[in-house]
User: Fold this.
Amino acid sequence: MSFFSSLGDRLRQGLKRSQEYLTGGFETVLEDDRPIDETLYEELEELLIAADLGAMMAADFVNRAREEVMFGTATRARDLRPLFRRFLEDTLAAATQPLDLGHRPAIVLMLGVNGSGKTTTCAKLAARFKADGKHVLLAAADTFRAAAIEQLTTWGERIGVDVVRQMAGSDPAAVVFDAVKAATTRQADVLIIDTAGRLHTKSNLMDELTKLKRVIERQVPGAPHESLVVLDAPTGQNGFVQARVFHEAVGLSGVAVTKLDGTAKGGIVVRIVRELKLPIKLVGVGEKVEDLEAFDPARFVDALVPAG
Assistant:
């Protein structure tokens, strides 16, 4: 797909708050004439934790900085900024993994809690696929909220993509069964399934999602081909916990991080990759249909920590 080729100005603009936070912090902590001492290491670690990289990763970088200083490859405080860029690049290298679209239909199961931007991300992704000439279907399997069905239906009308749906309160598994059957019969290239984000208990939700995966796999062995959790970047630590819960219960193929334009904690992206060993496959950097991008680690680092 053409939009998987790069991240552009929208990503830089979307990460502006995170970039300004880190840049401002580096200018304060890593002043040119400042000696590299224990106080600097402590302040640097605090800055990275506040940017939501997590205590483990902040400590790992500080340890790497200590090694570089000990070996003489970093002699001034300002040398630690390019070192941090390389550290990020190394960490995110494993996150380069495109969506698995080598099937027909390719079935994408979208997961996440209510309010994460899941339904909107489904629609944005469908619009991107359609713009690339693919035949796309959407499935409104969040039947517990009439508003979710209506929202996805409205999006479908707006972008010109058919939505498989039933009445609110219907069995989500029945919707998914119909949607997979429709995608197969109509020879769709991609089926994107919106799922519920909140039931009475966490175990109830996970049981329901596991059931949906079984329904899909019975019709199309090996599917769903993608199980993506949609995380709201401004939730920070809570988003990380959400990803871990979904991954443990359902098994994820990757993460779509939304609302990066609304937070100074873009570091959550790095933490997900480092600690959950999950690739970031999509990032959302705005409200417009086109504000959904494939994840490109090098461009992400450039946007988060400019080289200058």
Summary: Strands lie at 106-111, 136-140, 162-164, 190-194, 226-232, 254-258, 280-284, 292-294.
